[in-house]
Predict the 3D structure of the following.
Amino acid sequence: MPGGRLLTRSLGFRLIFFVDCILILAVGVFAYTFLRTYEGDLISEAKRRSARLCDTIKRGTRYDMLEFRRENVHRTIKTLGQQKGMARIRIYNKEGGIIFSTDENEIGTKVDMKAEACYICHAAKKPLEKIDVPSTSRIYSAPDKHRILGMIDPIYNEKDCYTAECHTHPETQKVLGVLDVMVSLQDIDEEIAYGRFQIIMFALICLASVFAAIGLFIHKYVTRPVRKLEQGVEAIAKGDFEFEVDATGNDEIGSLAKSFNRVREELKESYEKLRGKIEAADEDLKKAYKELQTKQEQLIQSEKLASIGKLAAGVAHEINNPLTGVLTFACLLRDDLEKDDPKREDAEVIIKETQRCSSIVRNLLDFSRQTQPQKMSMGVNEIAEKALSILEHQSAFRNIKIIREFDPALPQIMVDKDKIQQVFINLLTNAQEAMPEGGSVTITTTRTEDGKDIEVRVADTGCGIAESDLPRIFDPFFSTKEKGTGLGLSVTQGIIASHKGTIEVKSKKVAGTTFTIRLPIE
Amino acid sequence: MWHNKWFFRDLKHIRKKGQVVMETQKKVLVVDDEEVVCRSVKRILQKKNLEVDAALNATEALEKIAKEDYGVVITDLMMPKITGMELLKRIRKSKPETPVIMITGYATVRTAVQAIKLGAFDYIPKPFTPEELSSVTVRALERARIHREEAEEVEEVEEAFEKIKPPTEPAREEGAAVGIVEEELIIEGDLYCMPEHSWARVGKDGNVTVGMEEMFRRTTGDIVNIDLPFEGDEVHQGDVCVRVTSHDRHIHKLWSPVTGKVLKVNEALSKDCSPIKKDPRGAGWLIKVKPTNLEEDLENLIFIKPAIREDA
């Protein structure tokens, strides 16, 4: 039984127990009544037979008695006593002495008037002289366990007797003696026992078949479907909504199974809905977390940029004044020199380098200001091509193979062309600087799988970035190059962020570096 | 007309002091809290035979201006206490005929463009080359000379009005006859300008035609070469959009009044620069731009009421 249920608690057992109790009671009452009636009938019959026998004995011995032929009486009684089922035949005289008996040892002995055979008539002080047939009989158990039916028949004093020649009996004497016939009830007892046995067997078979029938019925129509339902409920409890319960029956359990299946379907539906909602919420949560993370990173980055921007702006402003002096006086010096003066070249270097300083300062200012991009609809491929056209012919790019893997079907997006071009130039210049001995740069443009972004990858085969440097490469003023300002990637990231895009880097020492930029299409 | 009123007010002023202008025409005042900048300006302009006074702050500058008339004042934009912007406002009040050039180390184009709107003649980003400084200064001096000339030439107020009326007005009325290529584009739409510098006309299609104001051309003198951007290039408000070479070999930068992508350039000008002179707001247009930040750009410009409607 599932759940370790006790046998006595099962519905089938209870039903069988209840029905069998009633059945046992009914069969018991029936058997008792039937057996009693049957036994009564048999005993009555035995009594009638005994009475007839008494009569037969009396009549058969009458003439021998009258003629006082004791031997004949003895013989007759003995012969009769040898009948099957005949226990004993006695004749008592008036005083209780046994004058005839089938057991010769008894002859001459006297019985006590209080003995069971005598008691019927001699209960009162004066013995009864006339008694009914039924009350003359008695039943008692013989020492060999068989019951014995005893019948007393008084021998009355008739005219023949006191007129006979022997004149033994006076006329006043009413009862001359008593004939006592004892018949064995063994046959009847056996018959009753057999009947009882039959009835008990019948009752047992009845009970067994009722038990089996109810058991089978309960098992087929109750226990099994209920167990199925139980398994279904357990399956649901475990989260399995696929467990279909057989609902073909048209009884109460069948309709319960139908209800169960309907509830299961509804549960399954709502469970799936709920799960969908939970999954969606989970997805949202993950997305929100990721966004939050990105925002946090951006915030940290923009905090960094803001403070550095302030610093840079201040520095730039201050540095422009001395630069003005340097530039002016270098120009003036140059102009004062003769055209063929070798010092003129030196002055040119000063002027050129001052102007370079100026452009660095300008970049710094541009960077610190983080101006909103001025966006227009452009193709990313075009911008990349333009950046390449600027760089490709420079001597530094002579040893570098440029591989274009442009997706021609990219949609145009709203971008600040100059800034995105700056991004390409920054990344390509970095790539070139990572490959002083030459190598290749692959520029790939694709649309992301979800179609929401344009992905640009710039991959080089250069020296790569040390893992320890990776987290800092977007930090302003972080540079691993001797001549680097440390602003290139910081500016790049700022530009991408202002386009609501993302930039990621993957790098392996020696194997090369790949920058991946994603720009939203809308 | 805004221009007319502006000139008119200046003329009256100039006429009173007519006798001193000749002496001050070559005198320049430079105001910067950085001595090295003052020295640089001094050295550059002295080489151009100009007399240069220097002031290290606005207060000193105002004192000097009160005592003396200068042909040009060159001032830094970022100064402690009184800023360059404040100084500009005060000079515009007291000496409206004096052109003021702004120098800015903090290259905030927006501030510079706003300064022009407030009446600054031009601005130079720091650090500048001698050439950049002298070309602007030369133009400013020319502007001052034009003031004086007009003040002297015009005896009567009525006459002066006629004389300085910008020649664009009649030219525009005869636009069709002169043979403007994109007549409707040029004539229609609201007109905005960076005063005495560049103009922008917003067409009905949302695109902007950009050109040179007449006074800019007059201050450069005859143009021998014009360097236009390419189609597809980007221009930014307050950044160079066109470079012109004048007959005295100075290269002058014209700031773009708007930000956007160049859609078209007036190719005809590369062969013949004369339409700039003849019809600066018409056939002399320079570039047509698809603006990207028009609303904000227009805030820094001055709106000019259409002359035709006013005349009517």
Remarks:
- Chain A has a mean pLDDT of 82.
